[in-house]
Structure formats: C-alpha cells, structure tokens
User: Which sequence fits this backbone?
C-alpha cells in the first residue's frame, strides 16, 4: 500500500509541480547533500552562501504559536533572505514523515523535520546525518551519536486552565462536578505525542508509573463518565472560544495561551513531573540541502535557542548556555516553576504506552 | 466478377464502418470513463490491494484487526449516525420539498428555498462545526443568552461534542440536500393523478398509498442512499468537533494514517476504508433490489 499510494501521489504532484521543478533543480549545490558538518565543507560562510543561492527552505508541521516558531521563521528568513515555505502547520510528526515519502524528488519535499521521538526512532533511514557547530553543547543522551537526529527543545506536561473560572491544585480536582465539560487534551493520545504524555501525566498522578499508563486511561474514563472530558483537540482557538477551558499540554504550549487569555494559568503537578523533548532532523531527500543545514545551525545558535526559550520551551543547550552566560535570563525566569525530579519516556516505555492506548483508549472515552 | 469482388469488399466493410461508429461513441464517453477510472476505480483498487498487503507481502492481518471491539463500535457508530441523519434529513427534507413544490413554480419562495438549500447542502467541515460551536458550544451565544435568562441549555453536560451533536450537525446539511435531490421527483407528480384518484372515489390516503407513494418511493430511496453515503463518508466536520477517541470510522482512518506515537498503519487504514466500501456496496445492492421492486410498474 505504501508504495502504490506514494506512486499515486507522485503522479498528482508531478502534474502540479512540473513547472517549478525545473526552476529549483539547478540552483542547489548538490555537494551539500552529504555534508555532515559545516566545517568539513568550507565553514559557515560557504554554507551561508550556498543556502542563500538556494533561496528557499521547506518546513512542515510548525504552528506559528508552537514554541515561538512564528518569530523564529521570521527572523531566520530576514537574516539570510531565505523564503521559508510552510506546509501543513497542524500536521503530526507522522504526517511529516508521510510527506517526506510521498513528495520525495519534488521541490516541495520537506527539508527539515521537527518530530516526536517515537517517529524519530522509527524513521532514521530518512535522515541525513549532520552535526551543528554547537554539537558538543547538546547533552549526549539527547542526540543520536551518528548525527541523524538531535533533540531541540522540550518541557514538562502541565495543566493549563482559565483561572477566572477554575482553580486547579491537583489532577484529582478535575474529577469534581465543577469541571463539567471542561477538560481537554492536545489531540488523540493514540495519534498525538503531546496527548499521550497528557494521559501519562494523569497516570503518574494516579499511582501509575512511567512504564504503566493504565491508571491514566482509567482516569480519563472516569473523567468521561463524569461528563468532564471534552473530546476536542485543544488549540489556541478552542482555548480562546472557551470550548476547552482546562487543557493537558506541554507547559510551553500552555504558556503561549496567556497572550490571548490573560487569566490563563499553567500548573505542573509536583507528584507527576513528566518531561519530553522533540527532535530535529534533516531529510536525505532535502531539495534545499544547504538551507536545511543553515536552518539547523541557526536553531542551535544562541539566537535560535533563546527564541525557543522566549516561547516557554526549554532549549536542549540550556545547561551549556547557562554555564557560558549566553542564556537569556529574563526568558528563563519566566518558565513555569517546577519542583521535584522529572521523568521522561524512553523508546520502549513510549511504545508500551502507545500499544496499551491502542487497545484501551477508544473504549475508555468513546461515546 | 471484378464488380462482384468490389461489392463484396464494400459489403465486408460495412459492419467495420458500424464498429467504427461504435468506437466514436465510446470516444465521446472517454472523458467520463477516464474520470471514473482515475477517481473511483483506481482508488478502490489501491485501497483493496493495500488492505491485503503488509510489510512482508500479502496478509489478512489488517482485516483481522477490523474485529477489534473499538473498530466494531466505530463502524456501528458510523452506521447509526449515517442512518439517523439520513432518515431525519430524508423525511424533513421531502416534506419541505413537497411544501415548496406545491407552491408556484416561479414563486419567490421556491427560488429562495432552492438557492438557500444549494448553499447549505454544501456547508460542512470546519466552518459548519464552528458555526455550531459559536451558537450552542460551551460558550455559544445562545447558551450564554439563555444562561443570562436563567435557563441552562445543557442541564446534563454539553452533548454537542458527541454523536448526538454530530447527528444534529449532519442533519443540518442533509435536509437541504434532500430538498434539492427530491424536488425534481415531486415536480413529476401531476395534479391530474390526484383528480383521477378522487374521480374514482379515493381519498387522500388512497392517493398517497396507491399513487403518489409508489411513484415517489424509488426517488425517495435513492435520495436516502445519497444522504446516507454523504454522512457515512463525512470527515472534516467530525474532525473539527470530536476528534478524540476515534468514535467514527473516518476518524479511525485518520488515526491509522497520521499517528505520531508509533501506531501508524497505512494498511490498516486501507482495511478500514475497504470496510466502508463494502458497507456502501451492500446498501447500494439493497437499494437496487428495492428499486427494482418498487419501480416494477412505473411507465418506462
């Protein structure tokens, strides 16, 4: 199916992009496709020149209000004069990988990915190895030793809520009648990583463990039976219009809602501190290989890292930047307070949680 | 002898010419055949092939997964949702269409209703979902307005984000669609037939039971089927309203295609889609049989 579907899509794509293909094919310096560090191919200035010549960068599934991506894209584009083409901003990490497969060989194929770890681990064959100049600032357990993927930013699972209507001091509060039709997740946990971690947060707070998501599913089952669960994916829009006044989500995503809703507050339960990071990767089939590498250099520079921090996300180089003084202290001070020792899902825990959800989630919340 | 030979060749050629005429007729149908081939037949074949293939060649594993309880309940939910919204849409829509059809054929009412129905029958997806969220959502203006007057719109919790809400919203575009597709059938009913029934001593009941009812039944069933398929395959409205829990089959397909937590299974998505194709095929067959029965004595 995958092969034939991809072929069918390619046929359609070929018809639409046939005009632009010719224009884009010649301009990129193909020698950058296999380059694993800027230093090995003439340094940063050579990379900047090559990327400017390509003139474009294809990014995918980057909502503008997600971890400050709106400002990041704008600044990168202005700094280097590179047009950033944004595809499917609401897509999932899997949608990103599907696009890499189906748009392979066209000028629209994604150059760079920002993906959840489960998808990163499963698709390393699609990535081109690359080590940014700041490679040594990324902790060893947060990057692939071969440079195929590297974590970029992360945060803690949190409960965001409209403090003009509710007060949340524990996960158990949400089961009370005051939260009728109020509690939402950022997606379906069998589909979206942020939602899976939301259920995991509920599990940790209800006697579960990082390798047992069962109590989290039971919690949402109770929540649904009490009429408190809203089966709508929480977005900036649903928070603004009041459909989802209480939301399980990463703290940096929840924090962003304060802009439109000043009474929005973010709570990280002290008995359930669950961390999670996303990862960057350059695609092997990137139509703009130099721009893709420059994008990563930019994201892992102090500027890029501080922009993520401004968006409430914890950049992966945070510890190193704290040490060398390049971390923006104002932004760092604005992060939600977290006390306790955080846990993070590893590959086998993540896949165990996903397969438990596959067979139990729909039955728990299906109406 | 030579002349005979010539006429024989001509004789032989004539059916050839006939065949050529047939192929030019086929040529006229070519765009249609190409279209249905590319957009109906080919995707169906791809779905069927996908449903039976896995990472290690042909397999029945994808189809076996269809028996999982949550998949079965999604199919049941989809069937009930489509049947209820199609039935409500068909009944209300046909009554509305009848009211309009019996009025003046060039009247302002008819023109207004058809124009509105044309727009509303295509009103779906995120915009429709948002329209309902803005009116009867948790913070919808009707809900808030009633609240200010001491009335609780949702005394037992918000049901908009459930199958009940989805049925209501689907009905919203099913009724106008019914009006549009059923109106031509009503226009075919002649007033003389009613007069004839009355001349023969029949009343309103006899007219509907023995004349108008049987005449309209094939069109009504056909329209119902269209409404059913319309609801059965709808995705965007549901995705905008209750995309958590995979309550109906299109949402399960979306999950199988785009899960980022390692549960993506394009082949299982194909199996789900094949299940939907089979259900629509069965209903179409039932419809064809029913129609053959009910259309038996219609003038051809």
Assistant:
């Amino acid at each position: 199916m995958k092969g034939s579907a991809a072929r069918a899509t390619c046929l359609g794509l070929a018809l639409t992009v046939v005009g632009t293909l010719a224009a884009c094919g010649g301009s990129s310096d193909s020698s950058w496709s296999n380059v694993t560090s800027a230093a090995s191919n003439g340094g940063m200035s050579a990379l900047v020149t090559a990327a400017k010549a390509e003139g474009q960068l294809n990014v995918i599934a980057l909502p503008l209000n997600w971890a400050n991506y709106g400002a990041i894209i704008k600044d990168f584009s202005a700094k280097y004069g590179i047009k950033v083409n944004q595809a499917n901003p609401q897509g999932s990490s899997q949608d990103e990988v599907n696009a890499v497969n189906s748009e392979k060989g066209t000028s629209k194929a994604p150059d760079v990915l920002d993906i959840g770890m489960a998808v990163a681990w499963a698709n390393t064959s699609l990535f081109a190895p690359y080590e940014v100049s700041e490679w040594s600032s990324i902790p060893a357990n947060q990057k692939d030793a071969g440079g195929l993927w590297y974590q970029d930013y992360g945060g803690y699972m949190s409960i965001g809520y409209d403090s003009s209507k509710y007060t949340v001091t524990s996960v158990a509060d949400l089961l009370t009648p005051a939260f009728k039709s109020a509690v939402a997740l950022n997606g379906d946990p069998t589909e979206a990583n942020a939602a899976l971690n939301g259920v995991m947060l509920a599990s940790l707070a209800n006697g579960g463990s990082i390798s047992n998501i069962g109590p989290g599913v039971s919690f949402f089952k109770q929540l649904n039976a009490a009429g408190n669960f809203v089966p709508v994916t929480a977005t900036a829009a649903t928070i603004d219009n009041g459909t989802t006044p209480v939301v399980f989500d990463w703290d940096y995503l929840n924090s962003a809602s304060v802009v439109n809703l000043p009474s929005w507050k973010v709570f990280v339960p002290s008995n359930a501190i669950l961390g999670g990071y996303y990862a960057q990767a350059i695609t092997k089939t990137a139509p703009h290989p130099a721009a893709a590498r420059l994008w990563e250099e930019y994201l892992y520079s102090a500027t890029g890292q501080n922009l993520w921090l401004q968006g409430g996300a914890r950049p992966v180089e945070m510890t190193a930047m704290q040490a060398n003084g390049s971390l923006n202290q104002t932004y760092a001070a604005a992060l939600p307070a977290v006390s306790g020792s955080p846990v993070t899902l590893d590959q086998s825990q993540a896949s165990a949680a996903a397969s438990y959800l596959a067979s139990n989630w729909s039955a728990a919340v299906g109406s | 002898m030579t002349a005979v030979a010539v006429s024989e060749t001509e004789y032989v050629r004539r059916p050839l010419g006939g065949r050529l005429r047939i192929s030019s007729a086929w040529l006229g149908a070519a765009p249609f055949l190409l279209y249905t081939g590319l957009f109906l037949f080919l995707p169906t074949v791809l779905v069927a092939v996908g449903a039976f293939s896995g990472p290690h060649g042909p397999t029945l594993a994808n189809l076996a997964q269809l028996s999982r309880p949550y998949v079965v309940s999604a199919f049941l939910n989809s069937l009930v949702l489509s049947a209820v919204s199609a039935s409500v849409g068909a009944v209300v829509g046909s009554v509305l269409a009848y009211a309009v059809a019996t009025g003046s054929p060039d009247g302002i009412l008819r023109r207004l209703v058809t124009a509105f129905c044309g727009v509303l029958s295509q009103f779906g997806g995120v915009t429709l979902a948002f329209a309902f969220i803005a009116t009867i959502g948790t913070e919808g203006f009707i809900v808030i307005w009633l609240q200010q007057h001491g009335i609780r719109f949702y005394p037992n919790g918000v049901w908009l984000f459930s199958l009940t809400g989805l049925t209501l919203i689907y009905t919203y575009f099913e009724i106008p669609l019914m009006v549009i597709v059923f109106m031509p059938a009503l226009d075919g009913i002649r007033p003389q037939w009613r007069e004839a029934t009355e001349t023969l001593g029949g009343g309103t009941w006899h007219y509907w039971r023995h004349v108008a009812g049987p005449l309209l039944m094939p069109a009504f069933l056909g329209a119902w089927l269209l409404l059913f398929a319309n609801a059965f395959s709808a995705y965007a409205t549901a995705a905008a309203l209750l995309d958590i829990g995979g309550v109906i089959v299109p949402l399960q397909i979306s999950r199988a295609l785009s899960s980022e937590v390692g549960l993506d299974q394009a082949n299982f998505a194909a199996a789900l889609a094949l299940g939907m194709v089979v259900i629509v095929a069965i209903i179409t067959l039932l419809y064809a049989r029913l129609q053959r029965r009910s259309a038996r004595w219609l003038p051809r």
Q: What stands out?
A: Chain A touches chain B through 53 residues (CB under 8 Å).
